C-alpha cells in the first residue's frame, strides 16, 4: 500500500497536482471502513503508516477517526505513560542498531498513527529521553513543515541544551540545519548551539570517507535525478544516494548498507546499463544540492533528515540553499564550452544533432507528459499529424519552460564527461526557454510523439 501510494504521489506531482483519483479512492474507502463499529485497529495503524511512508496527508476525516480512537483508550498517569513510551522507544533504538536517522524515520511512521494535535507534545518529549540516540533523532523535527511541530522541537531543544542533553553530533547537525530553515527560525537554533557549547557539547568531527566514483543520472521525464557516491573502505563499499526531483527539490537521501567491492562494482554497472548516467564531481553534486535545497524551501517540500548523514559521509562542508536560474545555467555552460563564439552556426548544429538524441540517450525515452484520462480523451481523432500538433500546442507548449529547465540540468550533468553534448543540449535548452516555435525543435516533436503514444496506451 505504501509503495502504491508513493507511486501515485509521483504521478500527481508530474501533473502539478497534490493527489490522484486513486489516492482519493484509498482515502475514502479506508475512511468509510474505519468508521464502522467493528473496524480493525491494526488496519487503521497500517493505513496511517502507509500514508506516512508515502509522505501523503491522511486527510481530515481519517484524522477524526484517530482522534476518536484515542478517546477510547483508558487514561493513564502522565508519568507512567511517559515511562512506557520511553521503554518502547528504547527497544526500537536497540532493534535499529542505534542509528538516529533510522530511528527518526520509524518515529515518523509511529507518530502518524496518533491524532495530529497530539503529535507535537509527544515529539517534544524526545530531547529529554535517557537515550542519546533518541535525543539525536529529535533534531530532525526542526525540518518539519508543520510550524507547530518545529516550534515545539525548538523550544524543547532549547530546554534540553540548558540541561546538557544536546550532544556534539547534534550541534554539528544544528549548524547545518540552520541554513535550511527560514531566517525567522535561525536565531533560536543559534541560541541552542551556543547554550550546548557552554554546557560542554563541542562539535564533533564526523568520520569522513573518501568519495570515489560519483555518478549522476540525467533527469527523466518526471524530473527525477539520482546521485550515487561510492564510499570505499578497505574491504567493502557503501553508497551515499540522493534523489532530486526538479520542481520539488531533494526528496530522498540514504546511505546503503556495506557491500563487497564486487557487489559495489555490479551496482555501478547496473546504473550505467539501466539509466543515462555520467561520472561527476563533488563540486557538481554540491551545486545540485544547493539548488535542490532552494527549491525545497520555495515550494514547501520537507528536506529529508537523512540528507545530513549523506553530507557527513561524503565530507561536504556547509551546504547553503542557492537557486540557480535555468537561463543563467545555460549561458554559463555555453560560455564554458565555447558555444557563444559562433552561436548561429552552433545552434544549427545542435538542432541537427538533437534529431538523433532519442536513439542515443535513454533519458529521452521517459520525456513525455503523463496525461490524465480527461486530457487523453481531449486529443482529437484523425491523422497522426493532427493529433501530434494538438499535443504540441495544447500540452507541451504551456510547459515548455519546464522541459527547458530539465534539459539545462541534463546539460550540466553531462558537461564534465561530454562537453560537446553539453554544449548542444544547452543551446537547445535556451531555445525551449525562449520563443522559438516548438515545431522547429526536433526534441519537442519527440516529446509530443512520446506523449501521444503514452496516451494511446492508457
Instruction: Name the overall outline.
Output: globular
Distance, first to last CA: 22 Å
Number of strands: 6
Structural class, by secondary structure, is alpha+beta
The low-confidence runs, each spanning 5 or more residues with pLDDT under 50, are none
Largest sheet: 6 strands, antiparallel
Q: Please, how many helices?
A: 22
- Whole-number mean pLDDT: 90
Rounded to an integer in angstroms, the radius of gyration calculated over CA atoms is 25 Å
What share of the residues lie within helices?
Answer: 55-70%
Quaternary state of the chains: single chain
Describe the structure.
- With 458 residues, the chain is of the alpha+beta class.
- It has 22 helices and 6 strands.
- It has helices spanning 2-14, 21-34, 41-53, 60-71, 78-95, 100-111, 119-125, 132-138, 147-162, 168-177, 186-198, 261-274, 282-299, 307-314, 326-336, 343-354, 357-360, 373-377, 384-396, 400-414, 419-433, 442-456, and strands at 211-217, 224-232, 236-245, 249-255, 259-260, 277-279.
- Strands 1, 2, 3, 4, 5 and 6 form a 6-stranded antiparallel β-sheet that branches.
- Strand 1 and strand 2 (224-232) form a beta hairpin.
- Helix 6 (100-111) crosses helix 8 (132-138), helix 7 (119-125) runs parallel beside helix 9 (147-162) and helix 10 runs antiparallel to helix 11 (186-198).
- It starts with a helix and ends with a helix.
